[in-house]
Amino acid sequence: MSKKIRVGVIFGGKSGEHEVSVQSAKSVMASLDKEKYTVVPIGIDKAGRWQVGPQALSLMPPEDQGFFSASQSASLDDTVQEHTAVDAQPETNTAVSQMISTSQPAVGHSTAVPPQLAGELDVIIPVLHGSFGEDGTIQGLLELLDVPYVGAGVLASAVGLDKVVMKTVFAAQGLPQVGFSAYTRRDLKNDTDGVVSDVERKIGYPCFVKPANLGSSVGISKARDRTELQRALEVAAKYDRKIIVEQGLNVREIEIAVLGNEEPRVSVPGEIIPSNEFYDYKAKYISGESALMIPANLPQQQVDEIRALAVKVFQAIDCSGLARVDFFVEKGTGKVLVNEINTMPGFTKYSMYPKLWDASGLPYDKLIDALIQLALERHAEKQQIQTNFDLDD
Ligand SMILES: Nc1ncnc2c1ncn2[C@@H]1O[C@H](COP(=O)(O)OP(=O)(O)O)[C@@H](O)[C@H]1O
Ligand SMILES: [Mg+2]
């Protein structure tokens, strides 16, 4: 039998999207083919502490821990044997001092991954959303450890998570999007009235006010007048030092899945029908009533336009592996506008990204195989980069 591929699945994280990540990771770990892969769970708690091996499952809700070990005890037992050897301490923070020669960082800002783990794993799937996960930080750590990993690299992750930089890049590429304007917390503190009148002049009402660096609709509000705008700016400033304000349009929300490195493939498009006025946090995760329509009911010419734009968006930020690209189609005019790119989209079996692929003929387990393959290919490609400077070139 050929050797199994050892896959580390990183989940949780110091992010507002911790719980979503846990759910995504649960689906991924349960679907990895145990004939082909040895699964090593790697959990990060909300304080930023890492747990490697079976003890990482303690970060899952109790009902999920039971589900996981019942269905996967064999591979987890392998993992225990394999990793108790390298990972003697359940609290792994001390290991960072061996990885980088600095003193041990304070708990809470720890990026401590056991150094032995890099050599022990063939590939890592960072199933993390939002800050410290989807923003290039974990990707930077994995680059330093020189271990192949699934998904976007440092640059694409960081650009994709910062709505202001992302939209500035899209604008430079001539991609169609809603009008926007950006402010800092400091602008607000120094001159709230100035910010308000700038928004009124450039954007108008209704507008959407968002923290630049969060996902899951956290801190986002729709403002219809000056009072609502003031309040919305205050709320957004609680979550980030950068704030983006956009024209609020009456839209359909279309999402599409992209998969690949240099020559990405695109899925069929899907549509979100939010249960609330817009696709806010409640509509996403609490009410459970938002509907997904796959494929979206759109004229062929619009489908073609969206598919072509999705590839351009993916390439605009130099993305690799996977991304979900979200669009608005303006009601009335039918105009297609790019909303955002998500470099680590929700990944439970019921999430849009895997469902779009399923509807396009690529089931969940095959999708994970493809992502692992893409990670290995990208890593191999990087190995070909010459790192010493040749004077004759
Ligand atoms: N400019 C806009 N016009 C209309 N609706 C918007 C606009 N921006 C955001 N929304 C609504 O808010 C939701 C969340 O905004 P989005 O920018 O996608 O943030 P997140 O990264 O948190 O998903 C969207 O899915 C949509 O329902
Ligand atoms: Mg969104």
Account of the 3D structure:
The strands form three sheets. Strands 9, 10, 11, 12, 13 and 14 form a six-stranded antiparallel beta sheet that branches. A four-stranded mixed beta sheet has the order 3-2-1-4, with helices on both faces. Strand 2 and strand 3 (50-52) form a beta hairpin. The chain is built from 14 helices and 14 strands. The protein has helices at 18-31, 62-86, 96-99, 115-120, 137-145, 154-161, 163-172, 185-190, 192-202, 226-239, 281-286, 300-316, 352-359, 364-383, and strands at residues 5-12, 37-44, 50-52, 123-126, 180-184, 207-211, 221-223, 242-247, 251-260, 265-266, 270-273, 291-293, 321-330, 336-342. It is globular and about 65 Å long. Helix content is 40%, strand content 20%. The model is unreliable at 73-111 (pLDDT under 50). It starts with a strand and ends in a 10-residue tail after the last helix. It folds into three domains: 5-149, Rossmann fold, CATH 3.40.50; 179-247, ATP-grasp fold, A domain (Dna Ligase, domain 1); 251-382, D-amino Acid Aminotransferase, Chain A, domain 1. It is α+β, with helices and mostly antiparallel strands. Residues 326, 340 line the site of magnesium ion. Residues 178, 208, 210, 215-217, 220, 246-249, 251, 253, 274, 278-279, 326, 339-340 line the site of adenosine-5'-diphosphate.
